[in-house]
Amino acid sequence: MTADVLVTEVPFELPKGYVDAGGTLHRSGSMRLATAADEIYPLRDPRVQNWPAYLIVLLLARVITRLGSLPEVNAGVVEGLFSEDLAHLQDLYNRINGLTPQVLAVVCPHCHEPHEVEVPLLGG
Predict the structure, then answer these.
(1) 0.85 surpassed by pTM
(2) pLDDT band for position 118 (50/70/90)?
(3) In which element (H, E) is residue 56 found?
(4) Which residues contact 82 (CB under 8 A, 6 or more apart)?
(5) What is the phi-psi region of residue 123: left when phi exceeds 0, alpha when psi lies from -120 to 50, beta otherwise?
């Protein structure tokens, strides 16, 4: 009998990397699965209430458990990421938390051509 194992943390490699104040480049890190609290508490933050786009900064600061040799990852670190790295982490967050629709390869029954279809999320 095999036991199911829930993977709650995944490693990542940033495309560009975060450069700290001392000039050190940090690219490797890990992100944990988000909890309900991770998604709810930032909504009360005045920065999010005044600027909803800031939500992703606070979410990522809560779930990134490690980035290179930095002692902590906070909102200031996430703000200092290059745009490509932020997009990469947003995509990872969505994938590991089941927020990205699945794409399936299918074959059209009429023309027999292969293509991909997006399976929407429940309730989406």
Answers:
(1) no
(2) low
(3) helix 55-63
(4) 16, 17, 18
(5) left
pLDDT tens-place string over residues 33-81: 999 999 999 999 999 999 999 999 999 999 999 999 999 999 999 999 9
Q: What is the C-alpha separation between 23 and 83, in angstroms, rounded?
A: 18
Lookup result for tokens 């991909």: 116
C-beta of residue 96 within 8 angstroms of C-beta of residue 110: no
- Distance, in Å, from the CA atom of 114 to the CA atom of 5, rounded to the nearest integer, reads 34
Q: Give the C-alpha separation, 120 to 112, whole Å.
A: 23
- Break the chain into its structural domains and give their ranges: 9-119
What is residue 124's predicted lDDT score, i.e. its pLDDT?
38
